[in-house]
Amino acid sequence: MIDKIKDYISEAEAFSTENAAELEAFRIKFLGKKGVLNDFFAEFKNVPNDQKKEFGQVINALKNTAEEKVKATVEALESKEESKGIFGDLTRAAEPVIIGSRHPISIVKNQIIDIFANIGFNVSEGPEIEDDWHNFTALNLPEYHPARDMQDTFFIQTNPDVLLRTHTSSVQVRYMENHKPPIRTISPGRVFRNEAISSRSHCIFHQVEGLYIDKDVSFADLKQTLLYFTKEMFGKSKIRLRPSYFPFTEPSAEIDIYWGLKTETDYRITKGTGWLEIGGCGMVDPNVLKNCDINPDEYNGFAFGMGVERIAMLLYQIGDIRMFYENDVRFLEQFKSNI
Ligand code: DAH
User: For 127, which of 27, 54, 75, 282 is 20 to 30 Å away at the CA?
Assistant: First the structure.
């Protein structure tokens, strides 16, 4: 009987096919319920004790040979199928490819990055969960400073030192702590404020922060940089810097662009003035430079911050900020872009 099994081993070793049905017949013959192997296993109890060991070994060898042959042949057949699938019928109709679209916030963010990259700004990022120092204190907002109330803050658990950043100005501090001037960087990112949600404001939104530190930087440099940006972004060539207050800049200003009053929408969104506010800016307060170990007698510079949603709403004429976060595909698929 052992010779018979060895014959089967040779037969299994020699087997080869490119045909799935033949392979299945082979599998059934050797490994099927009523196959050769099961017959031999059933025979095992009748084998004299002194032959059991050798019998067991050859029968296992047969099992392994048959199983490996099936596995290898299946793989060979499958890879042949696959290559046929790819290169087979070149005239067949193409599979439709469904192209996704980038989120409008990402599109606008990438546009802003591109525009500032052209004038030498790099991109920097910081954490969304911040500490008090980077979000407030280093930015000239010490504890109990009334301007802290300008931004309703989400604190993490009960530790008042850990919070969700209320603005990307925190990245300014981190960047200055880790880099020596000259500095030209923009920091896009998500920010959080404990605010009621409406069509115009949300508790989560995005900002882009800009920071320029060097020797002898002037307010005129700030204005030219912002003018260049608004021309590139909106195609508008008139801006004004309206005096304002931020603790981290002195002097500070609000950035308005002249949108015009051509259409009814222009009237509505500019409240009849033609002017639109898009962010804040100013010359970095010497205290902030000191807090970041930069000598204010040697260096100075400007900073600005803008809301990404606001810019996207203006560009795409979106009337409700909540649309950005609802992930309704009917809204999202309207934004096809290669940026
Ligand atoms: N951080 C301010 C805000 O969230 C925006 C801002 C204003 C940023 C003036 C600046 C700046 O860098 O100079 O409202």
Answer: 282
Q: Which of 130, 226, 281 to mutate to test the pocket of ligand 1 (most atoms within 8 A of CB)?
A: 281
Task: List, chain by chain if needed, residues with CB within 6 Å of any ligand 1 atom.
Answer: 167, 169, 209, 246, 249, 280-282, 303-305
Cβ neighbours of residue 337 closer than 8 Å, sequence gap 6 or more: 101, 102, 107
Closest ligand 1 atom to Cα of 172: 12
Averaged pLDDT for residues 208-232: 97
Cα gap 253→240, rounded to integer Å: 9
Q: How far is the CA of 196 from the centre of ligand 1 (A)?
A: 20
The domain 104-335 is classified under which CATH number: 3.30.1330.60, 3.40.50.10860, 2.160.10.10, 3.30.930.10?
3.30.930.10
Cα separation, 154 vs 204, in Å, equals 11
